[in-house]
Write a structure and sequence with these properties.
Length: 418
């Protein structure tokens, strides 16, 4: 049964006359006090707009212009909620077969806005359950793209934006943005510009988590951030990429991860399980690969790769372990494993044309490794078993090789080759 308040009825009647094209449909069901609804449909055929509001002081507004087969559905339950949706066609064409779905229930003061401009076959779906949540989705010159956002809790904020790139002039096509947040005070931001077949995925379960994904000018590029805990932070930026993927997963509290990629076929996987862990990655070039796992508390990984055909595998298990690693050139390989507490690894590799390989393993507590390799053909292997061991390797030149193995406590080894 429909119950329309005089004010809402007047607003609907005023704007419904703008729906001049045939087969447009508007269905509004309101129950409560001080509800407002506004629907405007212009141009095209087969457009539909359905609004269902229950509660007090809710507002809903739907606009469709120059579209064919577009559909907007909005449902609100509770009080003081606000929902707004737009679909706009091009000046010389139509924004056809688009769809916007918005649902807000079980709370108050939620706000959801969605807009599609000059897009075909794109879908926006937003759901909010709780209070004081904000969801915003924009698709501009984005064809066959999907934006999905779900928030369950209070004071969460989610933004998804898929659009053309100002720098490259490419439109967003077949790009997907998905964000799911359970808890309170979480923030999710997904921005896709000029993507072809890209996917951005955020899942946050806890409180005060932050995730930001930025993808630009890539093809078949995937970025995902998963957080299980409180106050975790994940930032991923992928620029000018082809078939690239980056994944951040954090289980615990106060973990931080930042990934910046540029190039072709780059891959990053970062897993943190514990509290107050940090990982920073910067990859520039082609076919770079990074794999990282931190299990424990207060561990830090800082890493940078520049060039092509580089690879790195890093794992830290324990507490207060640090690894600062850098590779520059082409064909470099690096592997680092620290098991224990208060271990430190610092290494630098630089070379052009040839393969530099480095394998570092520490098992115990308070061990230190410093290794530097320059030029071409260098190889170094260091393994320390025990406590308070130190190993320093410096190689500069051609066809160098070094291997250090220490077992016990307070051992010191130095290798210098020039």
């Amino acid at each position: 049964m429909r119950t329309l308040k005089p004010l809402a009825l007047a607003v609907i009647a005023a704007v419904s006359s703008q729906a001049m094209s045939a087969q447009n449909s508007t269905d509004i069901d309101q129950s409560g006090t001080s509800l407002k609804a506004a629907v405007s449909q212009t141009g095209g055929s087969g457009n539909q707009s359905t609004s269902n509001q229950e509660g007090v002081a809710n507002q809903a507004a739907s606009f469709q212009t120059n579209g064919i087969g577009n559909s907007i559905y909005q449902a609100q339950q509770g009080s003081a909620n606000y929902s707004e949706a737009h679909q706009v066609g091009a000046e010389n064409g139509n924004s056809s077969n688009g769809m916007i779905l918005q649902l807000q229930s079980g709370g108050s003061s939620n706000r959801a806005t969605a807009a599609q401009g000059y897009s075909t076959g794109s879908v926006i779906s937003q759901g909010q359950h709780g209070s004081s949540n904000v969801a915003n989705a924009i698709q501009n010159i984005a064809n066959n793209s999907t934006s999905y956002q779900l928030q369950v809790g209070d004071r969460n904020a989610a933004t998804a934006r898929t659009e053309w790139s100002y720098h490259t002039g490419l439109s967003g096509t077949q790009s997907d943005a998905s964000s799911t947040q359970y808890g309170n005070d979480n923030v999710s931001i997904i921005i896709q510009e000029g993507m072809l077949g890209g996917t951005g995925y955020v899942w946050q379960d806890g409180n005060e988590n932050f995730a930001r994904l930025y993808q630009s000018g890539g093809s078949a590029s995937d970025a995902s951030a998963l957080s299980f805990g409180n106050r975790n932070s994940a930032i991923i930026a992928q620029l000018g990429i082809i078939t690239s993927s980056a994944e951040i997963e954090a289980s615990g509290n106060d973990n931080e991860a930042t990934i910046i990629q540029g190039g072709t076929l780059t891959t990053v996987l970062s897993v943190q399980n514990g509290d107050r862990n940090q990982v920073n990655v910067n990859q520039v070039g082609q076919r770079n690969t990074f794999d990282s796992a931190q299990l424990g508390n207060d561990n830090v990984i800082g890493f940078a790769q520049s060039g092509s055909d580089s690879s790195a595998t890093i794992g830290q298990t324990g507490d207060r372990n640090t690894a600062s690693l850098s590779q520059s050139g082409s064909g470099n390989q690096l592997s680092a494993v620290s098991t224990g507490n208060d271990n430190s690894i610092v290494t630098v590799q630089a070379g052009v044309g040839e393969v530099s390989e480095l394998d570092l393993v520490q098992t115990g507590d308070s061990n230190l490794i410093q290794a530097t390799q320059h030029n071409e053909g260098n190889f170094a292997h260091v393994s320390q078993l025990g406590t308070s061991n130190q190993a320093v390797v410096l190689q500069t030149g051609f066809s160098d090789s070094a291997s250090i193995l220490q077992s016990g406590s307070a051992n010191t080894a130095n290798v210098v080759q020039r």
